[in-house]
């Protein structure tokens, strides 16, 4: 005898907003009639935090004081104990997406040290002689408004990079001047990130000009906080020795699961940065960092 359970949400993109009904079907495929003791559907949403092993000094304090932050936890009975006939059976469901009391829903986000995840879990209870069956399906939550105060203004950033203007990794750097502009450091997450760069002069040929999107995740407790930066994506906008005084456009789409509106909360933060990376033919690297704020209209 074989039996499988699947949770299928109605929307193809699996995106829902707070206050909406998450609807779909529970599909049960069985080779023979199956008796069960009840089918339960549970909606769960949580922020899960962890700390890099490099921050060993605060790990014990962190895990003793911070547990997953539960945002949603609701349950509904789909079916009481009965018998499922052989073949394919589809049972419709609807369950409201609503935050727990004194909690706020955040957008779905898959990070390295911070994860915000929403799931539907179907449990089919069976007799003690048979194993219970469980199936979990993730769905996505988007916020119609940013958690931060709404940002409407556009703040462009002029870029003028020279060995003298950059601190840190300029020892042995060739003489160069990279100019340009980032259209805004306040970015609507559903729109592309734009700007342009222009090489004014360079004493050594370039090998590559790149734009990096970086997430900066902070989590911890009163005893201490750990801050880690990890690369989300890297886009090469210039390959090889670039012609001088030529505008090179910047056009980058924010990836859906690995970015979210900027979040600053008591136990965690999710922030983002743009790195401009210049790689010279002699393997010298120059990196300059620009913090950005993401929001959603």
- State the helicity in percent bands: under 10%
* Strands, count: 19
What is the string of helix and strand elements? EEEEHEEEEEEEEEEEEEEE
| Rg over C-alpha atoms, rounded to the nearest angstrom | 25 Å
Low-confidence segments: none
Major sheet: size, sense and barrel closure?
A: 6 strands, mixed
How does the overall form come out from the CA principal axes?
Answer: elongated
What average pLDDT do the residues reach? 88
For the termini, the CA-CA separation is: 51 Å
Give the class from helix and strand content and strand pairing: mainly beta
Number of helices: 1
Percent in strands: over 45%
Features:
58% strand, six-stranded mixed sheet, mainly beta, 297 residues
List the helices and strands and how they pair.
Layout: E1 3-9, E2 15-16, E3 21-30, E4 34-49, H1 59-65, E5 69-84, E6 87-96, E7 109-110, E8 114-125, E9 133-141, E10 157-161, E11 176-182, E12 186-188, E13 193-202, E14 206-221, E15 224-239, E16 247-252, E17 263-264, E18 268-280, E19 285-295
Parallel strand pairs: 2-9, 12-19
Antiparallel strand pairs: 1-3, 3-6, 4-5, 4-8, 7-8, 8-9, 10-11, 11-13, 13-16, 14-15, 14-18, 17-18, 18-19
Structure overview:
With 297 residues, the chain is an all-beta fold. It is 2% helix and 58% strand. The strands form four sheets. Strands 2, 4, 5, 7, 8 and 9 form a six-stranded mixed sheet that branches. Strands 12, 14, 15, 17, 18 and 19 form a six-stranded mixed sheet that branches. Strands 10-11-13-16 form a four-stranded antiparallel sheet, with no helix packed on it.
């Amino acid at each position: 005898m074989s039996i499988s359970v699947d949770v299928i949400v109605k929307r193809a993109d699996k995106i829902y907003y707070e206050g909406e009904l998450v609807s779909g079907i529970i599909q049960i495929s069985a080779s023979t009639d199956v008796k069960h003791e009840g089918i339960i559907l549970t909606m769960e949403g949580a922020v899960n935090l962890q700390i890099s092993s490099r921050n060993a000094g605060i790990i014990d304090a962190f895990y003793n004081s911070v547990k997953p932050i539960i945002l949603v936890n609701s349950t509904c009975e789909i079916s009481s104990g009965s018998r499922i006939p052989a073949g394919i059976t589809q049972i419709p469901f609807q369950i409201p997406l609503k935050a727990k009391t004194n909690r706020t829903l955040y957008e779905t986000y898959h990070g390295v040290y911070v994860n915000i995840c929403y799931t539907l879990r179907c449990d089919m209870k069976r007799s003690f002689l048979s194993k219970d069956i469980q199936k979990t399906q993730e769905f996505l939550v988007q916020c119609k408004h940013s958690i931060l105060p709404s940002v409407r203004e556009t703040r462009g950033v002029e870029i003028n990079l020279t060995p003298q203007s950059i601190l840190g990794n300029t020892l042995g750097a060739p003489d160069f001047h990279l100019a340009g502009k980032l259209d805004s450091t306040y970015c609507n997450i559903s729109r592309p990130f734009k700007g342009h760069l222009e090489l004014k002069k360079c004493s050594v040929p370039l090998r590559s000009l790149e734009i990096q999107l970086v997430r900066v995740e902070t989590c911890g407790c009163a005893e201490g906080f750990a801050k880690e930066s990890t690369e989300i994506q890297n886009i090469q906008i210039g390959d090889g020795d670039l012609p001088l005084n030529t505008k090179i456009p910047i056009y980058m789409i924010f990836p859906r699961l690995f970015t979210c509106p900027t979040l600053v909360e008591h136990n965690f933060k999710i922030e983002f940065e743009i790195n401009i990376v210049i790689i010279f033919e002699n393997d010298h690297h120059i990196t300059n960092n620009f913090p950005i704020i993401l929001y959603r209209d």
